[in-house]
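Notebook, bench 3.
Goal today: get a predicted structure for Mitochondrial intermediate peptidase from Enhydra lutris kenyoni so we can plan the truncation constructs. The sequence was checked against the plasmid map this morning, with no discrepancies at the termini. Length recorded as 713 residues. Pasting the sequence as submitted so the record is complete.
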Amino acid sequence: MLCAWRLGGLGSRAAALWPGRAGLRGLGAGIRAREVSTSWSPVGAAFNVKPQGRRLDLFGERRGLFGVPELSAPEGFRIAQENALRKADLLVERVCSMPPGPQTVLIFDELSDSLCRVADLADFVKIAHPERAFREAAEEACRSIGTMVEKLNTNVELYQSLQKLLADKNLVDSLDPETRRVAELFMFDFEISGIHLDKEKRKRAVDLNVKILDLSNTFLMGTNFPSKIEKHLLPEHIHRNFAVTGNHVIIDGLHAEAPDDLVREAAYKIFLYPNVGQLKCLEELLSNRDLLAKLVGYSTYSHRALQGTIAKNPETVMEFLEKLSDKLSERTVKDFEMIRGMKMKLNPQNSELMPWDPPYYSGVIRAERYNIEPSLYCPFFSLGACMEGLNILFTKLLGITLYAEQPVKGEVWCEDVRKLAVVHESEGLLGYIYCDFFQRADKPHQDCHFTIRGGRLKEDGDYQLPVVVLMLNLPHSSRNSPTLLTPGMMENLFHEMGHAMHSMLGRTRYQHVTGTRCPTDFAEVPSILMEYFANDYRVVTQFARHYQTGQSLPKNMVSRLCESKKVCAASDMQLQVFYATLDQIYHGKHPLRTSTTDILRETQEKFYGLPYVPNTAWQLRFSHLVGYGAKYYSYLMSRAVASMVWKECFQQDPFNRAAGERYRREMLAHGGGKEPMLMVQGMLQKCPSIDDFVSALVSDLDLDFETFLMDSE
């Protein structure tokens, strides 16, 4: 999963108008691209031992978070944001007083960089730092930078400085493709916030953006809010499955894996019972998004959101989803018959298949057909072994080695955070990955990639090296064993490392389009592609060793695991089609022809097949409507592209260096600096059609165990 900062009304792309970094010294200041370090150590060993005490510093210097001197204490965020805001004012003044040209784009990018170096870092710290003072200071920095961005969004003079460049055909023709694309992206971000409108409409656009931001935050909080019901309304024997406070039972989720049908049914009906306030919030959010889209010149919010994506428009998305649904329908019916058969076998008195059944019963079928108990696999997947596996893969494919580097005092926020230097065999140091992998109190329970600083070519010709954080929630090592991963955890590690390598290998001139700062339906391609490698026996056998005996993971265990993932895979994919279709309809033509709940019912029955349960409103728990509004289809489309890249380029030989270099050159190197479909074409040597995407996804359902893709999202 990608985490990206959305500033003001400019958040239609991965990181808004200003996606970068700010006037912070440090963050690897002074690093040169071919520098080597004597402090690097092998990556595998570093993750299978507890972190040592920080290196002795005779002068007692405290570098600050990520090596930024100002951030040795929470108060440093105020200094950092003040420096960034001062620099932003100077850059705005400079760009507004100079004639238009390529330099205009460079200054816009530097402005973006200066603000987002604070914003991106603060956005991570505010949720991940264990100390409240740091979290609160980071939150304040986010607010401060956000206020500045709102000012920039409405700065007509700043907008006109870019408009003059793009209005001059001769100047535009003289720009190289990347510079032209970045200029157009900045202009797009300006115009979706309404700056090209007259003063009254511009104010309306600003007000709508503020309202949408507030509604988004309120809705997001509501998606996770527990439901409660009086104890006497539930059978007493299922109370123990839930939290109980006083006279109420608290339901905090769907309990989809609970063996008791009644527990799952109760959780489903109570957790999804419509909340009037949340329903009103969703309706207002969708309505205001539509108003904003129309105000800035789009027929629907979906048309606005899909600008610049692989799909390009909602009509293409719906064609993709409908064709995929048609291809899946027979397989989905068979899946449901198989699940219904298992339910009838275990619960003959109540064998009607309901929406709360598939996750549990498909798991039962997998366990019955294949012996895939995670505890059998964990000893082969120590964290150190998995990291060494990634290292082997990257070395063979891309000529890249991961080295563990000891952080200096104050550089990391928790002592178990590891720092990796990413080093190319001829180009030298490419960037840094901070690995925040272990569980701790109050840490968000999500696997994420955060950009802390993106790459860009600086004025002095040096390259600003990217810095990212990978956040997982792995168990700590014990006295008797290192951290051991389940197969799902191992796959998630590979997935997130795919995002990290996208960030490391992007070598764009502009940080606005660095690494993962690209359209959503392309951004997940590198991470999903890594899942294919994680499920290929030729790759797994390179590193999966029993942590005690050194025995390799037997091939038949990989076979069983991957074959088990095919169980009910069609119905799982059909569920994703339903969610994506619902998202498109909600962000399509307004006013909606009926209530969001009626639309849910109709869409569920048409695109999923299991009956709608009266008095439920699943859409009120659909948190992706905030961050992925009109873009939920992106997971499926990215998976289709990744599938095609795997089959065309890596299935025959997952360690093919020529294919790896082509992958870097055609896809990873450009970040968002090139149209996504052009990158896909360059890699596949053809322009794929919607039918090609659908065929790729459907054929994955039939792959043998060596090439089968396991779902991880």
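The radius of gyration is 25 Å. Residues 2-38, 705-713 have pLDDT under 50 and may be disordered.
Flagging this for group meeting.
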